[in-house]
Specification:
Elements: H1 2-30, E1 57-64, E2 79-83, E3 86-87, E4 92-95, E5 100-107, H2 116-121, H3 123-131, E6 136-142, E7 146-153, H4 156-164, H5 175-187, E8 194-201, H6 212-221, E9 224-230, H7 233-239, H8 269-275, H9 283-292, H10 302-310, E10 314-316, H11 323-335, E11 338-342, E12 351-359, E13 365-367, E14 371-374
Parallel strand pairs: 5-6, 5-8, 8-9, 9-10
Antiparallel strand pairs: 1-11, 1-13, 2-3, 2-12, 4-11, 6-7, 12-14
Helix pairs in contact: 3-4, 3-11, 5-6, 6-9, 6-10, 9-10
Length: about 375
Amino acid sequence: MKLKRAFVTGIAALAMWIAFFALPFHAQETQGPIPPKPGAAIQRPPDGAIRVRVALVNVPVAVTDAKGNLLLGLDKKDFKVLDNGADQTIESFDLGGEPLSVVLVFETSSHVAPLIPAIQKSAIVFTQTVVGQSGEAAVVGYNDSVDRLLPFTTDNDKIENAIAHLTIGTSGMRLYSALSTAVRLLQDRPITRRRVIIVVGESQDSGSEQKLGEVLRDAQLSNVVIYSVGLSTAAAALRSQSQPKTVQSTPPGTFGLPPVPGMPQTPSSDQQQRYGSAANVDVLALAEWTVQHVKAIVKDRPLEVATAATGGLNQSTFRDHSIEDAIDKIGGELNSQYTLSYHPTDSDILGYHHITVTVDRMGTKVRTRPGYYLAEN
């Protein structure tokens, strides 16, 4: 009996000894990460060890028949997409069904002061024709500054109120800065939503730090489509009784600017000859050139270049088209727009990627974005 009691006592003592010396190890195991010593660098995972690059390209496509009417009822099998000449697998297909995230960008400079009442009057057209029941919109204004007038909301009354209370600012026209702000706002929206910018303003920029090519590169990589309603200072002057009539120095619907002193006119003279004069410029070719040469100064028709580069539509209000008509046409296209998505097979190849979309229907015309640019990070 004494031998058995001594054995049990020894076992208990051994267990207490093991528990005592195991406490520090148990505490160390459960207390979580150990903070670094003062002055020591924080250890991070190896660079690039867990980074995966996935490039989903959304391609907006407008298809019209021989009469210019939007063509509906096409199926996924009717489309073919090439990326740098390589056939791509269309992974998703939609016809005007995905909800919209729209940034409405308005010029509020003193140049367009006579046109502001007409813009304010069109507020309900934006909400009913473009935003709709399932969409959301933010509102941005620009002159010498870029002002975020309304964050994203699904409340159409708030959107209409923000447009109805647009106020005139200074004489600046920071168009590219406003577009850059709009792109950044859309980058935070869910990828399941169609990202759209509608800019209402003159086809001019003054004071922006950004170049148009830089903005369009970001827009393309963020799957943002730009639409524009071009305002005219000549039309504004005609509406203003206090301003004398002026002569338009450039062809109707274009707004040429003199080159910056000391800077060469861009594109270069040989490219100007290839593209033609401002009235006959190949806007799609100029859009591709602009994206590839991001530091260049784009002199002619920047709004048309922006829409062509992203697959959108430019509507000029210089002649007979009213602002409401222009917005209505843009809204009609958004509701009839095909969206094709694919993961490019050569997403690791840097440089400009040309996109080609064809439709297996006779007599159809396809308008889409011409491509995108992948640069080193």
